[in-house]
Structure to design on (452 residues):
């Protein structure tokens, strides 16, 4: 007898298409895929009613514990993720210290508090961290390592090319299941632009803030990062590509490295331009840009240049955001996990006619394959984890941040009408979210290990 059956769905199998199948679940795993007429015995049934059934979404790029306590954010923000259909998150950790003493405690927190599954990427800033990569793999099953070509002003510096090349060589030595991630912006171009902007226009708007991070700095860094990865021989993941120049350059050079160089963009860069009335609440690094950039990014999502959709979610309250402190004083980041995939369906599938499978793939099998989680995650196959979304692509709803699950009390999509949302979410074989309510307790999610 099955634990759960999801019937009457159009099941999305990434890379294959949509099929009318019933999905059977047992012991947290997908146990059967059967034709609609075949008899099914299950303790519980969810009738998808003709809606799509997709693998649980993966957001491979979030941050936790930047502006709030790690445990508090892990508890709240994974619930926001779940309500948006995201059942696995990739969390970028950073800092100048060795991760060896702190990771065991963080993994305990994840296992106690998370409502999604979670995997870590470690940012590598120091020779000590670089030397410990083998231990991070062995002890914690972490196989993705991030390098910052530009840092965050006043918070942490970026690292130099010599260090990045060493890091890439180390990642290459681990083989093709490991991957380096990189923040592509040239620090010196940002510095010059920032000095100019802060002298001439310190009380600027969100639109002015874009000038602090010129597109050319992203475009140049994309070239340099891919060049170094070619020399070192590692797989490379370019996080949060934000600009038309950046993504066009990436498209030209990634094609020649097919299957080794991957590009990510985020839902914010695909949905909010720098003139949006949300203003400085949407301050971010890299910044939000023009409508022209948004259109270029969508073109590259549709044609497959972009392999993965993330959020770069950094949650905080309005008070911490401090938009009233002006362009230079406001903090970067916003909570966006719950509106992420609804927004991709609204802006991509409905408004621009981007094929549904092109969007869904980049939130399922795409990131799962890149980060060594496939086929446990990112597909619907017998033996895969039973993380599933019953997706209502036509449901219209209005974003009201007071009703979202994030502890952050604002949304850069505030007031927008979204078309599409999960009707139900299954996590590890349990109905975890249905009709607006979360039905599982914190700790139902767990920390994922990956291997080489
Ligand atoms: Zn990030």
């Amino acid at each position: 007898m099955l634990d759960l059956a999801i019937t009457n769905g159009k099941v999305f199998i990434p890379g294959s298409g949509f099929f009318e199948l019933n999905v059977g679940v047992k012991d947290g795993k997908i146990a059967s895929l059967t034709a609609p007429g075949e008899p099914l015995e299950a303790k519980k049934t969810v009738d998808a009613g003709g809606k799509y059934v997709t693998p649980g979404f993966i957001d491979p790029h979030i941050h936790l514990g930047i502006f709030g306590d790690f445990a508090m954010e892990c508890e709240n923000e994974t619930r926001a993720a779940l309500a948006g259909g995201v059942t696995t998150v990739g969390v970028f950790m950073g800092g100048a210290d060795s991760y060896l003493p702190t990771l065991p405690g963080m993994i305990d927190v994840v296992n106690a508090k998370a409502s999604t599954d979670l995997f870590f990427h470690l940012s590598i800033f120091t020779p000590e961290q670089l030397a410990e990569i083998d231990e991070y793999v062995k002890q914690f099953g972490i196989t993705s390592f991030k390098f910052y070509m530009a840092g965050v002003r006043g918070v942490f510096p970026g690292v130099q090319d010599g260090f990045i090349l060493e890091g890439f060589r180390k990642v290459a030595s681990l083989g093709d299941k490991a991957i380096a991630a990189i923040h592509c912006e040239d620090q010196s171009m940002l510095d010059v632009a920032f000095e100019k902007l802060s002298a001439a226009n310190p009380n600027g708007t969100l639109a002015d803030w874009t000038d602090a991070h010129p597109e050319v700095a992203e475009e140049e860094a994309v070239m340099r990062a891919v060049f170094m990865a070619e020399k070192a021989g590692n797989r490379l993941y370019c996080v949060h590509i934000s600009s038309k120049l950046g993504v066009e350059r990436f498209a030209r050079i990634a094609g020649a490295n097919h299957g080794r160089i991957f590009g990510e963009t985020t839902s914010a860069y695909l949905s909010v331009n720098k003139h949006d009335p949300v203003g400085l609440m949407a301050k971010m690094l890299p910044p939000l840009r023009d409508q022209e950039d948004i259109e270029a990014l969508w073109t590259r999502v549709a044609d497959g240049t972009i392999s993965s959709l993330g959020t770069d979610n950094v949650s905080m309250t309005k008070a911490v955001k401090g938009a009233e402190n002006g362009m230079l004083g406001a903090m970067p980041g916003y909570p966006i996990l719950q509106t992420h995939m609804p927004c991709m369906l609204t802006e991509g599938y409905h408004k621009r006619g981007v094929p549904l499978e092109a969007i869904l793939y980049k939130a399922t099998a795409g990131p799962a394959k890149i980060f060594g989680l496939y086929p446990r995650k990112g597909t619907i196959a017998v033996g895969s984890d039973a993380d599933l979304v019953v997706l209502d692509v036509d449901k219209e709803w209005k974003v009201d941040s007071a009703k979202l699950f994030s502890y952050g009390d604002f949304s850069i999509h505030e007031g927008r009408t979204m078309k599409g949302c999960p009707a139900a979410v299954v996590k590890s074989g349990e109905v975890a979210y249905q009709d607006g309510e979360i039905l599982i307790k914190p700790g139902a999610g767990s920390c994922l290990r990956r291997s080489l």
In short: The pocket of zinc ion is lined by residues 61, 63, 92, 312 (CB under 6 Å).
